[in-house]
Sequence to fold (474 residues):
Amino acid sequence: MVFSSLIFTFIFLPVVVILYFLAKEEYRNYLLLIASLIFYAYGEPRFVFVMLVSIAVNYAFAVGMDVMQNRGRLVYKRSLLISDIIFNLSLLFVFKYLNYTVGVINTVFHTQLYFSPIPLPIGISFFTFQALSYCIDVYNGKVKVQRNPLFVALYISFFPQLIAGPIVRYSTIEDQIVKRRVTLQGFSDGFRRFLLGFSKKIILANHLAVISEEVWAANPDHTNPLMLWIGSISFSLQIFYDFSAYSDMAIGLGKLFGFSFEENFNYPYLSGSVTEFWRKWHISLGRWFRDYVYIPLGGSRVSLPRHILNLLIVWLLTGLWHGANITFVVWGFWFFAMLCMEKFLIQPEKKGTVVSVFWRITTLLSINFGWVLFNSPGIKRAILYIKGMLGLSAGRLSVDTEIMRMVREYGVFFLLGLFFCVPWGELLQKRLSTNTLAVGVKAILQPVIYGLLFLWAVSFEILGAHNPFIYYNF
Fold:
């Protein structure tokens, strides 16, 4: 079940919300847990058992570490943490990387290993990383162990952020699980945030997907370079609106039930550097790798060679986290190289305006080329695509009839995608916040605008324009 589907929007969510507010406070967490398991089981019921095993094992390890801490058996406590890490990484490896690994072994060593392909449980990377962070934080004493297994189950399986994040730390909602309050203001804010994400997904991400998929299906060796640029920019916009829309809906849904999640995107395409981009893109994943990999390795407080090695490890793991394909590893290495160039050679924050402007443009180009890698089925295809973009292939640069057709059919969505990369609403609100008339007009127009956007989006849904979220694959 996906957030932008009609069955979720008009059946599942209203029923859960109504039952939630009808239920007594002490039963609400259990209701949300049941709803979350139904939500996850809707598409692939068997994978619920994978998630339940993960929840049970991580709960047991966390309780065990707490017991060992109280008894002063720190060696056993450390052994439990190591075992928990091995369990979670093994779970990820079996379901996410084993198929690909066997294929590589067969190719490299000319063997004929075979087993039935293992399907990928949706969102396994997200709920596994949440479970890992909980156990690591229990080990480090950053959170108290949760003795109620059903509350741990709710934290890991809570349906708003279960499938595609954000990756929520237990410390963020530790108190909210036990005690929270839904206010009318919070509920209305959450409802608006959900409508915003729903509209971004259906109106922008889905239509941008049509452009990128059509261009990627063509042979880049003989495609107009201008068309290839349109395709790559469209995918860059698509993945932003697709993923940020999911985060908007997840944050909004959380607020409906009294939970407050941290932001996951902050207008990343306005970034002036690669470092800034990764502070604004998929914020929860970046912080996860920073806190649980980069800093434990020593971060930047080490020698220069070790600092570079730490960055390399983090970015190779970041690439690998996204999937079992060499393109994701190279994509991670690409950003590692760009960050090293930025941090140790260019250092734009220390230079003048000319260098800053040059690096801002370079950052946007590097991000765009990175998304070409990310979206390509293999390295060879990515190289052919980039060569075509640079005019190094047989395609001729021109404004042909195919481009004009695409502009007529999807140009408005392309322009809207570019336009809303800037937080115009926030900028306008800051300027008009002291104007009483403007505040009154906003109070009247805002619900009307949200309602019209929602109806527009639903009309596309009814016409069958829906497609799944990209990050469901991770």
